Protein backbone atom coordinates (compact mmCIF):
# COMPACT_ATOMS: atom_id res chain seq x y z
CA UNK A 1 0.00 0.00 0.00
CA UNK A 2 1.34 3.40 -0.98
CA UNK A 3 2.19 5.58 2.01
CA UNK A 4 -0.02 8.64 2.26
CA UNK A 5 1.79 11.89 1.47
CA UNK A 6 2.42 14.11 4.45
CA UNK A 7 0.98 17.61 4.34
CA UNK A 8 3.72 20.25 3.86
CA UNK A 9 3.71 22.88 6.57
CA UNK A 10 5.73 25.93 7.52
CA UNK A 11 6.74 27.74 10.69
CA UNK A 12 6.78 31.52 10.94
CA UNK A 13 9.13 32.60 13.71
CA UNK A 14 12.55 31.16 14.48
CA UNK A 15 12.53 31.80 18.23
CA UNK A 16 12.00 29.36 21.09
CA UNK A 17 8.43 28.41 20.20
CA UNK A 18 9.07 28.04 16.49
CA UNK A 19 12.19 25.96 17.06
CA UNK A 20 10.50 23.66 19.58
CA UNK A 21 7.59 23.32 17.16
CA UNK A 22 10.05 22.20 14.48
CA UNK A 23 11.28 19.33 16.67
CA UNK A 24 7.71 18.12 17.26
CA UNK A 25 6.66 18.44 13.63
CA UNK A 26 9.62 16.31 12.55
CA UNK A 27 8.02 13.42 14.50
CA UNK A 28 4.57 13.86 12.99
CA UNK A 29 3.11 11.10 10.84
CA UNK A 30 0.74 13.57 9.18
CA UNK A 31 2.70 16.79 8.71
CA UNK A 32 6.04 17.48 7.03
CA UNK A 33 7.81 20.72 7.98
CA UNK A 34 9.24 22.15 4.78
CA UNK A 35 10.01 25.81 5.50
CA UNK A 36 10.89 28.07 8.41
CA UNK A 37 10.39 31.81 8.02
CA UNK A 38 12.26 34.28 10.21
CA UNK A 39 13.91 37.68 10.12
CA UNK A 40 17.29 36.89 11.71
CA UNK A 41 19.52 34.75 9.46
CA UNK A 42 21.79 34.02 12.45
CA UNK A 43 19.01 32.71 14.69
CA UNK A 44 19.43 29.23 16.09
CA UNK A 45 16.01 28.29 14.76
CA UNK A 46 16.86 29.03 11.13
CA UNK A 47 20.23 27.32 11.48
CA UNK A 48 18.60 24.18 12.87
CA UNK A 49 15.91 24.21 10.21
CA UNK A 50 18.54 24.41 7.48
CA UNK A 51 20.44 21.49 9.02
CA UNK A 52 17.24 19.44 9.01
CA UNK A 53 16.72 20.05 5.32
CA UNK A 54 14.04 22.74 5.42
CA UNK A 55 13.97 25.73 3.14
CA UNK A 56 14.78 28.80 5.24
CA UNK A 57 13.57 32.34 4.58
CA UNK A 58 15.15 35.21 6.51
CA UNK A 59 13.18 38.20 5.24
CA UNK A 60 9.85 37.34 6.84
CA UNK A 61 6.48 36.73 5.25
CA UNK A 62 7.45 38.72 2.14
CA UNK A 63 9.99 36.03 1.33
CA UNK A 64 7.34 33.33 1.53
CA UNK A 65 5.17 35.20 -0.99
CA UNK A 66 7.75 34.32 -3.62
CA UNK A 67 7.56 30.58 -2.78
CA UNK A 68 3.98 29.95 -1.61
CA UNK A 69 3.91 26.34 -2.78
CA UNK A 70 6.35 25.34 -0.05
CA UNK A 71 3.59 24.81 2.53
CA UNK A 72 -0.18 24.40 2.82
CA UNK A 73 -0.45 24.92 6.59
CA UNK A 74 1.46 27.70 8.36
CA UNK A 75 2.11 27.91 12.11
CA UNK A 76 2.63 31.51 13.25
CA UNK A 77 4.90 31.68 16.30
CA UNK A 78 5.76 35.38 16.14
CA UNK A 79 3.78 38.04 18.04
CA UNK A 80 0.20 39.28 18.14
CA UNK A 81 1.16 42.42 16.20
CA UNK A 82 3.17 40.57 13.54
CA UNK A 83 0.44 37.99 13.06
CA UNK A 84 -1.99 40.58 11.73
CA UNK A 85 0.19 41.25 8.67
CA UNK A 86 1.27 37.63 8.33
CA UNK A 87 -2.32 36.42 8.27
CA UNK A 88 -3.32 39.02 5.68
CA UNK A 89 -0.68 37.71 3.30
CA UNK A 90 -1.46 34.05 4.00
CA UNK A 91 -5.20 34.49 3.48
CA UNK A 92 -4.50 36.08 0.10
CA UNK A 93 -2.42 33.00 -0.72
CA UNK A 94 -5.22 30.65 0.37
CA UNK A 95 -3.29 29.04 3.23
CA UNK A 96 -4.53 27.54 6.48
CA UNK A 97 -3.09 29.37 9.48
CA UNK A 98 -2.60 28.09 13.02
CA UNK A 99 -1.93 31.09 15.22
CA UNK A 100 0.19 30.58 18.35
CA UNK A 101 0.11 34.29 19.22
CA UNK A 102 -2.63 35.98 21.29
CA UNK A 103 -3.85 37.92 18.23
CA UNK A 104 -7.10 35.92 18.18
CA UNK A 105 -8.10 36.78 14.62
CA UNK A 106 -9.63 33.34 14.18
CA UNK A 107 -11.75 31.35 16.65
CA UNK A 108 -10.17 29.92 19.79
CA UNK A 109 -9.34 26.23 19.49
CA UNK A 110 -8.53 23.85 22.32
CA UNK A 111 -8.04 20.40 20.73
CA UNK A 112 -9.89 18.30 23.32
CA UNK A 113 -12.92 20.60 23.30
CA UNK A 114 -13.79 22.15 19.97
CA UNK A 115 -11.52 21.21 17.06
CA UNK A 116 -14.50 19.59 15.30
CA UNK A 117 -16.35 22.91 15.29
CA UNK A 118 -13.58 24.75 13.43
CA UNK A 119 -11.99 22.23 11.11
CA UNK A 120 -12.95 24.24 8.01
CA UNK A 121 -11.60 27.59 9.26
CA UNK A 122 -8.72 29.27 7.43
CA UNK A 123 -7.31 30.74 10.67
CA UNK A 124 -7.58 29.31 14.16
CA UNK A 125 -6.10 30.68 17.37
CA UNK A 126 -4.37 28.50 19.95
CA UNK A 127 -5.34 30.90 22.77
CA UNK A 128 -2.36 30.94 25.18
CA UNK A 129 -0.38 28.50 27.29
CA UNK A 130 -2.66 29.36 30.20
CA UNK A 131 -5.70 28.77 28.03
CA UNK A 132 -4.51 25.40 26.72
CA UNK A 133 -3.77 24.37 30.32
CA UNK A 134 -6.93 25.53 32.07
CA UNK A 135 -9.80 25.84 29.58
CA UNK A 136 -10.17 22.02 29.31
CA UNK A 137 -10.68 21.77 33.09
CA UNK A 138 -13.12 24.69 33.23
CA UNK A 139 -15.09 23.16 30.34
CA UNK A 140 -15.25 19.81 32.14
CA UNK A 141 -16.41 21.47 35.37
CA UNK A 142 -19.02 23.52 33.54
CA UNK A 143 -20.68 20.44 32.10
CA UNK A 144 -21.12 19.00 35.58
CA UNK A 145 -21.74 21.99 37.84
CA UNK A 146 -22.33 25.16 35.74
CA UNK A 147 -19.41 27.54 36.31
CA UNK A 148 -20.40 31.08 37.30
CA UNK A 149 -16.83 32.36 37.66
CA UNK A 150 -13.41 31.01 36.74
CA UNK A 151 -10.15 32.57 37.87
CA UNK A 152 -6.78 31.14 36.95
CA UNK A 153 -3.34 31.92 38.27
CA UNK A 154 -0.71 30.77 35.81
CA UNK A 155 2.82 30.68 37.21
CA UNK A 156 5.76 30.11 34.89
CA UNK A 157 9.51 30.30 35.21
CA UNK A 158 10.85 33.72 34.32
CA UNK A 159 13.46 31.94 32.20
CA UNK A 160 10.76 30.44 29.99
CA UNK A 161 9.24 33.83 29.19
CA UNK A 162 11.02 35.24 26.18
CA UNK A 163 10.61 38.68 24.58
CA UNK A 164 7.46 37.64 22.72
CA UNK A 165 5.76 36.41 25.88
CA UNK A 166 6.67 39.56 27.77
CA UNK A 167 5.45 41.84 24.98
CA UNK A 168 2.13 40.01 24.91
CA UNK A 169 1.27 40.00 28.62
CA UNK A 170 -1.85 42.16 28.20
CA UNK A 171 -3.04 40.11 25.24
CA UNK A 172 -2.33 36.95 27.24
CA UNK A 173 -4.64 37.87 30.10
CA UNK A 174 -7.40 39.21 27.86
CA UNK A 175 -7.34 36.33 25.39
CA UNK A 176 -7.21 33.66 28.08
CA UNK A 177 -10.09 35.23 30.03
CA UNK A 178 -12.25 35.31 26.89
CA UNK A 179 -11.42 31.67 26.15
CA UNK A 180 -12.47 30.67 29.67
CA UNK A 181 -15.87 32.13 28.83
CA UNK A 182 -16.29 31.33 25.13
CA UNK A 183 -14.74 27.85 25.10
CA UNK A 184 -14.71 26.87 28.77
CA UNK A 185 -18.29 28.01 29.35
CA UNK A 186 -17.70 30.13 32.46
CA UNK A 187 -20.03 33.09 32.86
CA UNK A 188 -17.04 35.24 33.82
CA UNK A 189 -13.30 34.62 33.50
CA UNK A 190 -10.26 36.28 35.06
CA UNK A 191 -6.57 35.56 34.51
CA UNK A 192 -3.41 36.34 36.45
CA UNK A 193 0.08 35.45 35.21
CA UNK A 194 3.18 35.31 37.41
CA UNK A 195 6.75 35.15 36.12
CA UNK A 196 8.67 33.45 38.89
CA UNK A 197 12.46 34.10 38.97
CA UNK A 198 13.19 31.20 41.34
CA UNK A 199 16.34 29.11 40.87
CA UNK A 200 16.27 26.34 39.95
CA UNK A 201 13.44 27.25 37.57
CA UNK A 202 9.98 26.02 38.53
CA UNK A 203 7.68 23.95 36.36
CA UNK A 204 4.58 25.62 34.94
CA UNK A 205 1.80 25.59 37.54
CA UNK A 206 -1.81 26.57 37.11
CA UNK A 207 -4.28 27.09 39.91
CA UNK A 208 -7.93 27.16 38.83
CA UNK A 209 -10.50 28.68 41.18
CA UNK A 210 -14.15 28.34 40.15
CA UNK A 211 -17.51 29.17 41.65
CA UNK A 212 -20.21 26.68 40.70
CA UNK A 213 -23.96 27.23 40.73
CA UNK A 214 -24.87 23.89 42.21
CA UNK A 215 -23.02 21.63 44.57
CA UNK A 216 -23.38 18.59 46.80
CA UNK A 217 -21.35 15.47 47.52
CA UNK A 218 -22.60 13.75 44.39
CA UNK A 219 -21.54 16.69 42.22
CA UNK A 220 -18.16 16.78 43.96
CA UNK A 221 -17.65 13.13 43.02
CA UNK A 222 -18.68 13.86 39.43
CA UNK A 223 -16.14 16.69 39.37
CA UNK A 224 -13.36 14.39 40.54
CA UNK A 225 -14.21 11.94 37.76
CA UNK A 226 -14.59 14.48 34.96
CA UNK A 227 -11.37 16.28 35.90
CA UNK A 228 -9.43 13.00 35.90
CA UNK A 229 -10.89 12.07 32.52
CA UNK A 230 -10.03 15.46 31.03
CA UNK A 231 -6.46 15.30 32.29
CA UNK A 232 -6.07 11.90 30.62
CA UNK A 233 -7.38 13.31 27.32
CA UNK A 234 -4.94 16.22 27.37
CA UNK A 235 -2.10 13.83 28.26
CA UNK A 236 -2.58 12.15 24.88
CA UNK A 237 -0.72 15.07 23.30
CA UNK A 238 0.88 16.72 26.39
CA UNK A 239 2.29 13.81 28.45
CA UNK A 240 3.61 16.15 31.17
CA UNK A 241 0.14 17.53 31.97
CA UNK A 242 -0.78 16.37 35.48
CA UNK A 243 -2.83 17.14 38.56
CA UNK A 244 -0.49 18.23 41.33
CA UNK A 245 -3.11 17.74 44.08
CA UNK A 246 -6.64 16.48 44.55
CA UNK A 247 -9.47 18.95 43.81
CA UNK A 248 -10.34 21.10 46.83
CA UNK A 249 -13.99 21.81 47.66
CA UNK A 250 -15.47 24.55 49.85
CA UNK A 251 -19.22 24.69 49.24
CA UNK A 252 -19.64 26.48 45.88
CA UNK A 253 -15.90 26.93 45.38
CA UNK A 254 -13.65 24.41 43.70
CA UNK A 255 -9.88 24.65 43.28
CA UNK A 256 -7.85 22.55 40.86
CA UNK A 257 -4.03 22.39 40.83
CA UNK A 258 -2.16 21.53 37.63
CA UNK A 259 1.45 21.19 36.59
CA UNK A 260 2.86 21.05 33.07
CA UNK A 261 6.28 19.51 32.47
CA UNK A 262 7.73 19.92 29.00
CA UNK A 263 9.06 17.11 26.83
CA UNK A 264 12.50 18.73 26.65
CA UNK A 265 12.66 18.70 22.84
CA UNK A 266 14.34 22.06 22.27
CA UNK A 267 13.39 23.80 25.50
CA UNK A 268 14.09 22.70 29.09
CA UNK A 269 11.46 20.61 30.86
CA UNK A 270 10.50 23.57 33.04
CA UNK A 271 9.23 25.41 29.95
CA UNK A 272 5.93 23.55 30.03
CA UNK A 273 4.16 26.79 29.16
CA UNK A 274 5.77 26.77 25.72
CA UNK A 275 5.61 23.00 25.33
CA UNK A 276 1.84 22.82 25.78
CA UNK A 277 1.38 25.45 23.07
CA UNK A 278 3.52 23.66 20.51
CA UNK A 279 2.07 20.25 21.39
CA UNK A 280 -1.51 21.51 21.08
CA UNK A 281 -0.69 23.29 17.81
CA UNK A 282 0.73 20.10 16.31
CA UNK A 283 -2.41 18.21 17.33
CA UNK A 284 -4.59 20.83 15.63
CA UNK A 285 -2.38 20.84 12.53
CA UNK A 286 -2.63 17.07 12.27
CA UNK A 287 -6.42 17.25 12.48
CA UNK A 288 -6.45 19.78 9.64
CA UNK A 289 -4.04 17.68 7.63
CA UNK A 290 -6.08 14.50 8.05
CA UNK A 291 -9.53 15.95 7.42
CA UNK A 292 -9.14 18.66 4.81
CA UNK A 293 -8.58 17.88 1.16
CA UNK A 294 -5.79 20.00 -0.20
From TrEMBL:
<dbReference type="InterPro" id="IPR000534">
    <property type="entry name" value="Semialdehyde_DH_NAD-bd"/>
</dbReference>
<feature type="active site" description="Acyl-thioester intermediate">
    <location>
        <position position="129"/>
    </location>
</feature>
<feature type="binding site">
    <location>
        <position position="273"/>
    </location>
    <ligand>
        <name>NAD(+)</name>
    </ligand>
</feature>
<dbReference type="Pfam" id="PF09290">
    <property type="entry name" value="AcetDehyd-dimer"/>
</dbReference>
<protein>
    <recommendedName>
        <fullName>Acetaldehyde dehydrogenase</fullName>
        <ecNumber>1.2.1.10</ecNumber>
    </recommendedName>
</protein>
<keyword id="KW-0058">Aromatic hydrocarbons catabolism</keyword>
<feature type="binding site">
    <location>
        <begin position="160"/>
        <end position="168"/>
    </location>
    <ligand>
        <name>NAD(+)</name>
    </ligand>
</feature>
<dbReference type="InterPro" id="IPR036291">
    <property type="entry name" value="NAD(P)-bd_dom_sf"/>
</dbReference>
<feature type="domain" description="Semialdehyde dehydrogenase NAD-binding">
    <location>
        <begin position="8"/>
        <end position="121"/>
    </location>
</feature>
<dbReference type="GO" id="GO:0008774">
    <property type="term" value="F:acetaldehyde dehydrogenase (acetylating) activity"/>
</dbReference>
<keyword id="KW-0520">NAD</keyword>
<feature type="binding site">
    <location>
        <begin position="14"/>
        <end position="17"/>
    </location>
    <ligand>
        <name>NAD(+)</name>
    </ligand>
</feature>
<dbReference type="InterPro" id="IPR015426">
    <property type="entry name" value="Acetylaldehyde_DH_C"/>
</dbReference>
<keyword id="KW-0560">Oxidoreductase</keyword>
<dbReference type="Pfam" id="PF01118">
    <property type="entry name" value="Semialdhyde_dh"/>
</dbReference>
<dbReference type="InterPro" id="IPR003361">
    <property type="entry name" value="Acetaldehyde_dehydrogenase"/>
</dbReference>
<dbReference type="GO" id="GO:0051287">
    <property type="term" value="F:NAD binding"/>
</dbReference>
<comment type="similarity">
    <text>Belongs to the acetaldehyde dehydrogenase family.</text>
</comment>
Amino acid sequence: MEEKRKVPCGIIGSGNIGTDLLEKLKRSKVLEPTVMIGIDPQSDGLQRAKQKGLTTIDNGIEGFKAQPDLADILFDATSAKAHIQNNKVLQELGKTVIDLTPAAIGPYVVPVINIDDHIQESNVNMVTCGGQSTVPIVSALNKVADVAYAEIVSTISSKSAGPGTRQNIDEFTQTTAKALEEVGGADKGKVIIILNPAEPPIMMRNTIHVMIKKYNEEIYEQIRTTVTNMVEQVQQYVPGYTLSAEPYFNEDRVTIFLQVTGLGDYLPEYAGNLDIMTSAAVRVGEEFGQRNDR
